[in-house]
Design goal:
2 copies of one chain form a homodimer.
Chain A: H1 4-12, H2 15-26, H3 31-35, H4 42-54, E1 58-63, E2 66-71, H5 73-111
Antiparallel strand pairs in A: 1-2
Helix pairs in contact in A: 1-4, 1-5
Chain A binds a DNA duplex through residues 14, 16, 30-32, 40-44, 46-48, 62, 64-67.
Chain lengths: 113, 113
DNA sequence: TAAATATGACACCAAATGGTAATATGTCAA
DNA sequence: TTGACATATTACCATTTGGTGTCATATTTA
């Protein structure tokens, strides 16, 4: 199939889809409501929503003849967790640099007793 | 041009590029060193590195006939910040839910004085 | 200087992507 | 029950993407 990150990152790559997520942050929406915010056909918007669902960035809830689209945490978490690995990486680099500077200063002060 | 997020998310969408980032987490590498880890031509790897650079996920440092590729924080930050907006969103929802539960319990206890 | 090495620059190809339009299906409401 | 409405399905199109191969250029190094 597709790893959790792959589905999420693939979905996040398109600016329209990221805008859809922002809109769904305000409230859940039907396909028609989402496509009101965009200058493209409902068909195109629906395709984007399908890809967002595949990435677990939204969940879809059929209700009568409508289809409610709702923001979902899972995919966002998957992507955020992946990125967080690198933030940890830089934090460590930064603290290593700080230790080095502190040692430098300690050595400097020892030179003039 | 391209917004900071767009470049970063576009670059992150491809699994090969995400793997490259992981490899560069271990150490800086030339194009040849990066492509040693993949079953594809140097040309293909170079294209991926270009897209990573455009997304500010790596910085490139020419050194003689070599080209050193190094992990860069900017793009990762841009993407992580964007995703973080939604994490904040859910944290608020969750705490609102908890408050609701607490109020519910308080109201319950008031029923039997 | 000549050969080996690392990369750059193209042209090309198949498949995926983002969009359209037309038509069909299911559901609500007068 | 008959429209009207929301969505589903399908076929089609242009562009982008991820890959290849070939040849050129620049830099070491024997």
């Amino acid at each position: 199939m597709m790893s959790a990150e792959q589905g999420a990152f693939r979905a996040l790559a398109d600016p329209t889809r990221r805008q859809i997520l922002m809109h769904l942050g305000s409230s859940d929406m039907t396909i028609a409501q989402v496509s009101d915010h965009f200058d493209m056909t409902r068909g195109a918007v629906r395709k984007h929503l399908t890809i967002l669902e595949e990435g677990n960035l939204i969940s879809v809830h059929p209700k009568g003849r409508e289809r409610i689209n709702r923001l979902a945490p899972e995919g966002i978490r998957a992507a955020a967790d992946w990125l967080n690995y690198f933030n940890r990486f830089w934090d460590e680099k930064l603290s290593a640099l700080q230790s080095a500077i502190e040692n430098e200063q300690r050595n400097e002060s020892e030179k003039q007793p």
